[in-house]
Description:
By secondary structure, chain A is of the alpha/beta class.
Amino acid sequence: MTDTLIEKIIQTKNPVCVGLDTAFEYLPDAMRKNCTTLSDAAQAITEFNLRLIERLKDVIPSVKVQAAYYEMYGVPGMQAFSDTLQAARKAGLIVIADAKRNDIGATASCYSAAFLGETDVNGLKLNAFSSDFLTVNAYLGADGIEPFLKHCRQNNKGIFVLVKTSNPSSGQLQNRKFENGETLFETVADLVEEWGADTVGKYGYSRVGAVVGATHPNEASILRKRLKHTLFLIPGYGAQGGSADGLSVCFDGRGLGGIVNNSRGILCAYKSDAYKGLNYIDAAYAAVEDMQKDITSALHRAGKSL
Amino acid sequence: MTDTLIEKIIQTKNPVCVGLDTAFEYLPDAMRKNCTTLSDAAQAITEFNLRLIERLKDVIPSVKVQAAYYEMYGVPGMQAFSDTLQAARKAGLIVIADAKRNDIGATASCYSAAFLGETDVNGLKLNAFSSDFLTVNAYLGADGIEPFLKHCRQNNKGIFVLVKTSNPSSGQLQNRKFENGETLFETVADLVEEWGADTVGKYGYSRVGAVVGATHPNEASILRKRLKHTLFLIPGYGAQGGSADGLSVCFDGRGLGGIVNNSRGILCAYKSDAYKGLNYIDAAYAAVEDMQKDITSALHRAGKSL
């Protein structure tokens, strides 16, 4: 699936992932009015997402769907989550479920079945929340990750492991140094490279990627040198403060090796002065184009043209 | 909510939490036959849980509902999750949603709204998945935890932060020592104590608890000495190998300070030789009684009678 994602990045010449972190308050007034239940809100969110997917499907490789923004609308929210994942896959996009799942082995197997595998009901193999990639948290160590690796191998799926996150306090634990002089994030990074070693594809990247925040270019630079076969999912561009020049260190000489997420900057583009007068769909389209230019220009400046 | 949980433990003289990690294959054949869809499976699981809750509600303080075992049945599974949480709360049990959620601040706020707070839809405050406690993962540091703390304070809710997990590879990261000689799990533990400092209740425990595996009594002993105001949620008893004598170190002199989870050992008691001939409900009831005796005896031996 990592190969397929990279192929779509090359084909669209666009390493941009649209983050469907679709909070109800992001929706235009007309779509929100008259909503009084979680179900109303979830349906409005689904409609917002599906129109956006339809408009953007040929110019982006991928969407990242953030589970928290659906879970907060309860069971109807999870229906919206499922419908969004399905619509994006049907539109030919690579779908990253951003759920940061983690648990002990037996339980991690259930999460993996839910997102990357199948659920067995009396011998029937059924799909719960079908996605191409899932984000995971490695605090529990290898046996909490192995069930996901199994589906990565068997079903040609992928995971992105949290390594260096984009938030301000990410360093509180992640940047602390162990006795051997290496930080927690470097230690997790080495595990990521190891876990992916047997699934390196034709572009040199494995099915086990890393989440590396655009807001921390120094750490990103260290990680890119250290992780030769690891694709980076890069959050933190735009609203969180990450710049295109800063995150260009995540890419290799071919302009590959990373996919840059933007959520609010695209979903809420229609609210910003830059896209005044455009409806949310056209504003999002224009924001994707601008972000693509911004990143590909930065890559070009760094001698890494896609 | 920590006070309420401790009161219920004292009232039932039972520090046992029943883990509703209800996989479809745990159900008796009669409840499983004719199920061919995720929805069928989810309904059967709900029925299994609700009968169990009805039978156990007066002898246990709490249930822990593991999200992964519901997510694997898709949207109908999340309905079963929601119905189980609601039924347990209605039965007067303290409900721990075991979902190990984690994300950057803005997104953690959504998770917190989903489980511990309310979701705003056009000014209406609605409940998504209502629980009393939520398990969380601290890899992202303080700003990923703060949104949960806010609801702990405002809504009298609680969280359990993963500190030392029960799985075999938990030491891979958690037991590594930082330059100051302290392990990752000790470092997270100190943050937990700090995060809870302003919510210590009448029994001396705060609203910010810690997950501490019964399978690691040495680490549990270190943690109990270190964390004077932290309630422990203790998984790993029974099927995973944790013993009552081992985990007694988690409790204070009053026999308080911990709640011990058991999932498979109770849900699947009817399949074991010890409870042969009993239906699943009576077997679970007997298994809870036996577990209570096992733990209270161990506490007694350690001079910590409840």
